[in-house]
């Protein structure tokens, strides 16, 4: 057995153990069409073939993301529900901004991030609604690079019960995806949270996953000072986000 397969099997067993500890029935994950949620969908399907669920949650989304999410769903043959939450998210955003405008407190410059974070938090609430009804635990998709830099929304995609990719660099996530058989279209697309048109993780962060992985692995001689400074700053300002959620041991 390869090292990757060993770690995958150990993570699947860890997921089963956590569900048993919590006296729950299974696992649910939001499937975005990205690489991280694809790997998690495959893992939870392996852990609970009959008691796992993927949830597609479009909010002003690029239709391509839903197409890729369905490739993941069909690839691992996981049960799923497909939701469009655009009107619900828009209603909350419009009510809040309207009330702030009434008080002359509204800040237009903050609208883009307010909108983006609300999308993540509406999705979190939706996944937990599914989980509560089925008696499942919610599985997160953040990897070690995202956790280190705080590249997740607090109480949004960071609001989960389990984070099975917490010890994986982004490079390792890709290795697992290939081993698990994730569709090439998902593997080859630029990592993006899909928060706005043209948004990608690396453009928003100002550095690359390769650089973050190198920092995490202690290969600082391979990381230009500019990137080290960016990564150190992202880690520092996101410290408040890193509250303990259950993570597997390093296998």
Helix-strand blueprint:
Layout: H1 3-21, E1 26-30, H2 35-47, E2 52-58, H3 63-76, E3 79-84, H4 86-102, H5 111-134, E4 136-138, H6 144-149, H7 170-180, H8 184-188, H9 201-205, H10 209-216, H11 225-237
Parallel strand pairs: 1-2, 1-4, 2-3
Can you tell me about this structure?
With 251 residues, the chain is α/β, with parallel strands linked by helices. It is 54% helix and 8% strand. The protein has eleven helices and four strands, in the order αβαβαβααβαααααα. It has helices at 3-21, 35-47, 63-76, 86-102, 111-134, 144-149, 170-180, 184-188, 201-205, 209-216, 225-237, and strands at residues 26-30, 52-58, 79-84, 136-138. A four-stranded parallel sheet has the order 3-2-1-4, with helices on both faces. Helix 1 (3-21) crosses helix 2 (35-47). The two termini are 14 Å apart. 40% of the residues are buried. The mean pLDDT is 94.
**Which structural class fits the helix and strand makeup?**
alpha/beta
Rounded radius of gyration (Å): 18 Å
Distance between the termini: 14 Å
Helix content: 40-55%
> Strand fraction band?
5-15%
Number of helices: 11
List unreliable stretches of 5+ residues.
Answer: none
Question: What does the main sheet amount to?
Answer: 4 strands, parallel
Shape: globular
State the strand order across the main sheet: 3-2-1-4
User: How many strands?
Assistant: 4
**What pattern of helices and strands is seen along the backbone?**
HEHEHEHHEHHHHHH
